Amino acid sequence: MNSIMRSYLLIDNSDNIQILEKMLRLISHEQIELVKEENAIKISEVSMNGFTRIASSLETLASDLELNEIALVVVPFYDSKLINSINIHKNGVFFLYDLLLEQYSKNELDIQGVTSILDNVPKEILLTVKNYIRLNQSLVQTGELMFAHRNTINYRINKFINVTSINVREMQNAVLVYFIITLMDIN
Known about the structure:
Alpha-Beta Plaits, alpha+beta, Arc Repressor Mutant, subunit A, 15% strand, elongated
């Protein structure tokens, strides 16, 4: 199974988005669509192979389009608030979690903005997800810890995924969500 990648492109000049879109289609061999947002360009979902081709061509893209800054940020879900809360001043491919952690360690992270993406999730579900991730995504161990049946834990995990569109069964997403829930001080 070929996994799907979601990402944003951050560049210093997005005047000619049509040319960029054509170039990304040629590079990835996929039907890519770009959507310009406030501070970033949202790339439609691409396969892992297409993403790898794009990531390995960043330097060439920057040169061809005469860009000083170009960053590709991998995200578990599309959220313009979250992508607008990060600052990138270097070129390359980055996972959102790594960027948030770096900003947090430098006291540059807008914690309120980051945690607001989970505001609509009930505390019980957040606690379940936090324990599920902490216990290596084990439904049985999470159920034992929380005195709930594993089916109940599975229901809560699925509810979280449905509400947020973040699949915490994927490790990179799980790490990001655990970080955000920890910032929220959910116990």
